Amino acid sequence: MTVLLSIFAYLLGSIPTGVILAKAFGNVDPRTMGSKNIGATNVFRTAGKKLGIFTLLGDILKGLIPVAIARGTLDSYFWIGAVALAAFLGHLYPIFLKFKGGKGIATGLGAFLALSPLSAILSLLIFGAVVYKWRFISLGSLTATASFPVLLALLNPHRIYIPFAIIIGTLIFYRHRENIQRLTTGKEARFGEKTRPAEPSAANP
Q1: What pLDDT does 180 receive?
Q2: Is 32 or 202 the better-scoring residue by pLDDT?
Q3: Percent of the chain, pLDDT > 70?
Q4: pLDDT at site 199
Q5: What pLDDT shows up at residue 1?
Q6: CA distance 171 to 28
Q7: Gyration radius of the chain's alpha carbons
Q8: Phi, psi of 116 (to 5 degrees)
Q9: How far is CA 71 from the centre of its chain?
Q10: Helices in the chain by DSSP H: which ranges?
Q11: Quick check: 104 pLDDT over 50?
C-alpha cells in the first residue's frame, strides 16, 4: 500500500498542470515563453491571470490530495512524509515531461497543508507579507519555504516530518538558484512586471 501510494503521488505530481491549461486554453506553451517555467507565476504572465490561478490550484492539489489520502490510510508518519516527497519530486522531475519540471512551490504547499495545516498557513502568511512588501514572488516563496521547517518544529508533534520538509526546502532553493542570482544583482522581475527575456541557453527551471 505504501509503495503504491508513493507511486500514485509521484504520477499525480508529474501531471504538468500549467502546460496542459496554457496549451489547451491559452494556445501558448509556458516552456517556451517568459521564464520557461511550468509553474503558476509564468503561466500567469504568459497565458493570463485565470489560467495562472487554475495552475496554482491544480499544482497545490497535486501535493495535497496524495498526502491527505496517506494521512487517512497509513499508520506510519515516515511513509506519510515519503508520499509528500514523492508528489513534490513528481512536479520537479515529471515523467510526462522527460523529467524537466517546475520549482515546486505550489505542490510543496499542498503537501505541507496536508502534513501540518497551521504551519503551512503561517508560512503562506509570511509569503504574502514578503510579496506585499517587496513584490518579489521568488523572495516570498523562499522566505516561506525557509520558515516552514521552523514552524513545523514548533507546532507539529510529528518530528519525522522535519527532515522531509528540509529536503523539500533544499530542493526548492536549488531550483530557485537563478532567481537568487537575479535577486542579488537586482535583475529579478517584481510581481506585475513582465518577465525579462530568458537566455537562449537557459533550461526550464
Answers
A1: 98
A2: 32
A3: 94
A4: 46
A5: 87
A6: 27
A7: 16
A8: -150, 85
A9: 20
A10: 2-14, 17-25, 40-47, 49-73, 77-92, 105-115, 117-134, 137-155, 161-175, 177-185
A11: yes
Q: How many other CB atoms are found less than 10 A from the CB of residue 83? A: 31
Q: By CB neighbour count within 10 A (0-12 exposed, 13-18 middle, 19+ buried), where does 74 fall? A: middle
CB contact at 8 A, 66 and 60: no
Q: What is the DSSP letter of 204?
A: P
The SS3 assignment for 21 reads helix
Give the separation between CA 34 and CA 41, rounded to whole angstroms. 10
**Position 200 pLDDT exceeds 50:** no
Q: Where are the domains of the chain?
A: 2-185
Q: Which amino acid is at 144?
A: A
> pLDDT-based confidence at 202, cuts 50/70/90?
very low
Note the pTM of the prediction, 2 decimals. Answer: 0.92
Written as nine digits, the cell of 145 is 519555504
The set of cell numbers assigned to 39 is: 509553474
Spell out the residues 6+ positions from residue 186 whose beta carbon is closer than 8 angstroms to its own. none
User: Distance between CA atoms of 157 and 185, rounded to whole angstroms?
Assistant: 40
Q: Which amino acid is at 121?
A: I
Three-point CA angle 147, 152, 157, nearest 5°: 170
CA distance 107 to 54: 13
Name the amino acid, one letter, at 61: L
Single-letter code of the amino acid located at 44: F
